[in-house]
Amino acid sequence: MDLNFTTEDQAFREEVRSFLRDHLPSEVRHKVLNGLPLERDDYLAWQHALHARGWGGPSWPAEFGGTGWTAVEQYIFDEACAEAGAPRLVPFGLKMVATVIMAFGNKTQQERFLPPILAGTEWWCQGYSEPGAGSDLASVKTRAVRDGDHYVVNGQKTWTTLGQYADWIFCLVRTDADAKPQRGISFLLIDMKSPGITVRPIITMDGSHEVNEVWLEDVRVPVENLIGEENRGWTYAKFLLGHERTNIAGIGTAKRELARLKRIAASETRHGLPLLEDPLFSAEVARVEIELMALEITNLRVLSAEAENKAPGPEASILKIKGSEIQQRLLELMTEAIGPHALPFDRDAMTAGYQGDYPLDAYARTPTWQYLNLRKLTIYGGSNEIQRNIISQMILGL
Amino acid sequence: MDLNFTTEDQAFREEVRSFLRDHLPSEVRHKVLNGLPLERDDYLAWQHALHARGWGGPSWPAEFGGTGWTAVEQYIFDEACAEAGAPRLVPFGLKMVATVIMAFGNKTQQERFLPPILAGTEWWCQGYSEPGAGSDLASVKTRAVRDGDHYVVNGQKTWTTLGQYADWIFCLVRTDADAKPQRGISFLLIDMKSPGITVRPIITMDGSHEVNEVWLEDVRVPVENLIGEENRGWTYAKFLLGHERTNIAGIGTAKRELARLKRIAASETRHGLPLLEDPLFSAEVARVEIELMALEITNLRVLSAEAENKAPGPEASILKIKGSEIQQRLLELMTEAIGPHALPFDRDAMTAGYQGDYPLDAYARTPTWQYLNLRKLTIYGGSNEIQRNIISQMILGL
Amino acid sequence: MDFSFTEEQNMLVDTAERFVSKEYGFETRNRIIASETGMSETVWQGLADLGLLALLVPEEDGGLNAGPVETMLVMSALGKGLLVEPYLASAVMSTRAIATLASPDQRGEWLERMLGGELIVAFAHDELGTRHEPLAIETRATRIGAGYLLDGRKSVIRHASQAGMLLVSALVEDGVALFALDRDTPGVRLAGYPSVDGARAADVFLEQVYLPESRRLGQGDASDALLAVLDTGLAALCGEALGVLQRSLDTTIEYARTRKQFGVPIGKFQALQHRMADMLIHVEQARSMTYLAAVRALDGDAARRATALSAAKVVVGEACRFVGQQAVQIHGGMGVTDELDISHCFKRLFAIEKTFGSTLDHLDHYRRTLAA
Amino acid sequence: MDFSFTEEQNMLVDTAERFVSKEYGFETRNRIIASETGMSETVWQGLADLGLLALLVPEEDGGLNAGPVETMLVMSALGKGLLVEPYLASAVMSTRAIATLASPDQRGEWLERMLGGELIVAFAHDELGTRHEPLAIETRATRIGAGYLLDGRKSVIRHASQAGMLLVSALVEDGVALFALDRDTPGVRLAGYPSVDGARAADVFLEQVYLPESRRLGQGDASDALLAVLDTGLAALCGEALGVLQRSLDTTIEYARTRKQFGVPIGKFQALQHRMADMLIHVEQARSMTYLAAVRALDGDAARRATALSAAKVVVGEACRFVGQQAVQIHGGMGVTDELDISHCFKRLFAIEKTFGSTLDHLDHYRRTLAA
Fold first, then answer.
1. Most buried among A118, A124, B268, D302, by the most CB within 10 A?
2. Is residue C205 domain-shared with residue C173, that is, in the same domain?
């Protein structure tokens, strides 16, 4: 048993770190390290830099222009990026639709859609969730009716993350209304510029515009944009859900945020003592640091099992549950550390170039909005309740 | 709004305290204050003392020889007794079967059975639970078949607390096998000396013999020992379940144990500091003390609402849940306070007159067995899961 | 022992609740928090007209001379409406401070205008380090001629920009004093911002601010009075929390009863049922401690009072966190949107937990008293 | 990075697990803990025959010279059987101490008899105050002629009454030393008792106990070696915990699958399902930290090693408490009886949580390193 990475893996990590030092745009790094909101161009700048290095598709096989990295290498890459302050890779194109296109798309679709994703020239969003469906993804109501060489799509999607930037959307649509819920679903790629598509922002409690409603009204989609076979879309969607385990726990992000928490706690005081030496506060920091340490090893164990092609157990759900809880706790502790300064809430002061007279230390400006924003972590991507259902079904088999 | 007791109530409390100083047998007090196991004679000595004072039935109306106290007076009495180190009143006679006999028994039954309960000359135990039934009390399998002037009873009861001391047992028995589960149940009083009754001890993990299995094999019970009507026993049992709310939270007991915890924590040290000044440990003591403070007021609110005859809500379940959790936590913290001394476990050293060479401070001898013993608190009397079901059904109405 | 309320108290609750439900709907509130000033003059005048601004004003000054129980009840009703107007700062804390410390002249000058709704007073006490120690004041008032020069910084002062006057605590030669400062006094600078819960706040910078003697409230060290005012505020805040907690719980229960997933109301799922049961337990325990806070708020023994209030803040603070987080979680995606009121409840609960010392601050305070 | 085990390691696990499941059933164990000596000579000899007592013995002394990973694996297997024999004390800690510190003569005298099962050695280090500070030793060894006089008291020493020899830590002029003491040496008095988990322990009173120089292990200050032995023990204890945790979880899952209430298996109730999911998470996190503890157990940097081991003990300790309590709770009334093995698992988990410092002790240790 060996908890350390191999010499090759360590060299690889150094390579990634060195690349990050040289090529991660400094404004972007500044934003991420200080919890400032990111914009479209921040994500794109990073994707372009990666693409230029040939690392545009860290999770892609080489045959499609990806890096062909092992799961361990992908993990090392993700962790190094997150710790250094790189933005997360927007997953909807790179990790979601691309995976489905690679596995189930035809040659034409692969040639048409994959390169722009790699290059960061086409932005994708996800059309799965519908109003009122919550975690019940199979209850798709959006209908696609065949009309000659087209499908005519009508319905509504919601929680469409960063849909306001998207050039394309991949949708689950119902193509057979009479089949059982999970049967009559198809997987369609839809141009966001198609007539009949309306995007409406959903503002979240932190004041962000991250998610959207997407309305589809008689949207005509060429049949060549159907992935795989009609009515088999649920299979592709499920394939995707089970596919991504590498970075689900967000270890790198959590380590970065833990370091930030400790910086804040070293600056703030109680009874004249830095919070990091205050017994009760430091005990809370210790708890989360130790939890994270354990989760990192659990994550490595999952990676190791993946490398050996062991059948996946409930690990992905463990990583999701603990990872989200740890990240939420880190932000909660940051808001605790800044005390009453968690109350001032001026979105303008949370921009990189802000020059106003907001009277807070820079580190105190962003924890609150992030704390609010991260409530979503335990809700989306299969809520933590759903994850616990999955675990208990696996272990109980009832 | 006034959180204080009235002058009359305070005077009453003084009267109770004064009685406790003079008449609570000192060996019994010593045992209770130090967490030593109690025996049959300890309970009886206390009941006899109370009876001599006319306080044998603190929850009974005056017409049956009880004190006729209000719910508030009963609460004050219970709390003063618990804090002073009196044993709990064994509830099976005094609070359970007596309540049913008073409400649904006939004159003959009342005259036969109530006085010995008051005087502490007949010991009762409860025959509700059956093997495998758990919280599902209505799934009674023990059968009673009418044969002339008798019922012939066959079956098995379990978790019969202190049944080894009992002269009588009150049982739920099935008298109509064809009716719906809750319909065909009757409420029978059975002499423990009847031929066909076998009591077998169940030893719990702390090494105690508190509960028993009671086997009934062709036990003949005179029909005059039937309470109320045949097949209506479930109604009486349910009446009883909803009846007792006064002392469910165990506030007095918890206060006594909190004081004990603080005494222990003042004696034990970490890094040279008394544990009561150790930041992390004292924070845990503070948490439980504050929880208890809140629960005491919640309990008083329930009493107050009872006095005004307001319809009962989910309060009884709140009192049960929090009360049991607080008591368990108090013992857990005592075992934490004594550290490695929580490991030695010699039942002999837990007797009042022990003279052996057990090398532990007296206060360190009993927390562990009590901690083990009190695991039952969240399981019996309607497990805390059942209590949460009750609350959610009340508030959700689903 | 009596947990019932008097007829007058019930009427007061009724008045405040009716006002909130009629005049302070979700849409109205959204308009108010998005407005320039961040508060509604109409609402404020409405509160004045109902006599609610006179609640803590002594009878001789034309007020109702009510106590902490009435304050708790009104705050709880206003909490249910997530009211962002400066009730706690002006009508509770500043009013209490003036009623306790001010001279008859000063009371005459201010209280009538305050209870009439003309004058809003912010309570400018907190500083950068105050959260843990209420008397850790660094703002100084130096005597100069017949007055004082004030220098210092007050931080996260709610409603400062909406107030005509600020009550400022400062160190003086003989201890601590409170000063009444018009907002437009030369040397006063406000850096304002919205608060996370929709109210407005500001940091207040005081540079060589001259105030005549007539602007000092009372003589001698005002530490005890100041602590009493802060505790009045804390008890009132617990009352407000209770209102927000109850609304959050009620809203969540209603959502769970009606929202369906996998074909059944989500309230049918036992894991959520038990969580809602735990939310209820938190709310009821918080209610008990809010009552205790109200009853102890006037305790003359400052140490005993502080201990009881710390205990209350711990229980209320834990409830704010648990109920707020679980209410959002049970609402799922809808819970994190700005569109439903539950996220606004969540933010107010979050802010309350951080106000006048966090749960951890008060737990720490309480645990230090154990060995004493 | 590699979490797989070698073929040898897997065989070791297999050997130990097979032995436990064949020779250490619930009834057998009950007979053993109720017996006069509280342990089984047969079992001990069985462990010797399988070579398991030679695990940590150096090759030159006839042993397997295995490391912390093997120790963890064996301890985990023995933990699954709730073994009460002195494996940790004798075959792990004492063996390690002797292998590290003892002279060739001493090793020759003791190790062979230990690995053969003839000699059981208890590790008599803990004192009344040791739980929080491993080097807070008060037992003294005063030099007298060619030997030492030992005075002091060792507290809650597991297996002391079953051991032929005790390794006793004591203060000497130049630091800390370990002494090997035959149990029947004049001046040694044992006050024995059962431990809550079924094993036996004793307090050991040393009064003017004379030992010749040949009974001292090594020269100079043995503090570092002692800390290393204690950490070896802690890492091994985590391994044992893992075995008990896994058994508790498996037993609970099986119970929930089969036990019916209200007509359905209780494992159908979502509240219990989620609790079992949380139990699994605790077990898996504990497993990760147990691996970490094994890997770091030989770290030469004592401070870094102690920090990692404290972190492990926190996670393992939390798991012991949560899994133990919930396993009993889910078993309901049956869970609190002596009849089912789950209550025995519960008691061993309780004891482990309190051994070598509790969760709170280690959390406190860890948090003190944060600011450094």
1. A124
2. yes
* Token pair for A395: 């272990």
Three-state secondary-structure class, residue B62: helix
Strand partners, D168: D124, D179
Chain D CB contacts of C274 below 8 Å: 271
- What domain range is C292 assigned to? 223-371
Which amino acid, residue A69? W
Q: Residue D107 falls within a domain, yes or no?
A: yes
Q: What 3-state class would DSSP assign to B398?
A: coil
Residue-level pLDDT, tens digit, chain A, 398 residues: 889 899 999 999 999 999 999 999 999 999 999 999 999 999 999 999 999 999 999 999 999 999 999 989 999 999 999 999 999 999 999 999 999 999 999 999 999 999 999 999 999 999 999 998 877 778 899 999 999 999 999 999 999 999 999 999 999 999 998 888 788 999 999 999 999 999 999 999 999 999 999 999 999 999 999 999 999 999 999 888 766 656 789 999 999 999 999 999 999 999 889 999 999 999 999 999 999 999 999 999 998 888 887 777 788 999 999 999 999 999 999 999 999 999 999 999 998 888 888 888 899 999 999 999 999 999 998 899 999 999 999 999 98
CA distance A104 to A126: 17
Check whether residue D296 and residue D211 sit in a common domain.
Answer: no
Contact A345 C325 (CB under 8 A): no
- List b or e across B314-351, with b for residues whose CB sees 16 or more CB atoms inside 10 angstroms: bbbbbbbbbbbbbbbbbbbbbbbbbbbbbbbbbeebbe
Cβ neighbour number for residue D368 with a 10 Å cutoff: 17
CA distance C272 to chain D (A): 8
Q: Specify the DSSP class assigned to residue C266.
A: G
Choose among B217, B194, B214: nearest CA to B131: B214
At residue A114, φ and ψ (nearest 5 deg) are -70, -45
Residue after which a domain boundary falls, among C119, C151, C182: C119
User: What is the nearest CA distance from A134 to chain C, expressed in angstroms?
Assistant: 7
CATH of A250-396, one of 1.20.140.10, 2.60.40.10, 2.40.370.10, 3.40.50.300: 1.20.140.10
Does the annotation count B336 as an active-site position? no
Residues of A involved in catalysis: 244
From D64, D68, D66, select the one nearest D51 (Cα to Cα). D64
Contact A29, A84 (CB under 8 A): yes
What is the domain class of A124-232 according to CATH? mainly beta
CB contact under 8 A, C273 and D273: no
Q: Is A3 on the interface with B (CB under 8 A)?
A: no
B236, with CB counted inside 10 A (0-12, 13-18, 19+), is buried
CA distance C277 to chain D (A): 12
User: Are residues D59 and D27 located together in one domain of the fold?
Assistant: yes
CA–CA separation, C283 and C246 (whole Å): 7
Subunits with 3+ Cβ pairs within 8 Å of A are: B, C, D
CA distance C33 to B224: 74
Under 8 Å CB-to-CB from C34, ≥6 apart: which residues?
A: none
Tally of domains within chain D: 3
Shared domain for C58 and C113, answered yes or no, is yes
Q: What is the DSSP string of C269-323?
A: -HHHHHHHHHHHHHHHHHHHHHHHHHHHTT-S-HHHHHHHHHHHHHHHHHHHHHH
Is residue C52 domain-resident? yes
Residue the block writes with tokens 């999607």: A157
Pick the residue of D268, D270, D276, D367 with the most C CBs within 10 A to test the interface with C by mutation.
Answer: D270
CA–CA dist B90, D309 (Å, integer) = 48
Enumerate the domain spans of chain A.
7-88, 124-232, 250-396
A28 token code pair: 């972007």
User: Which residue is listed with tokens 């959006």?
Assistant: A142
CB contact (8 A) between residue D332 and residue B134: yes
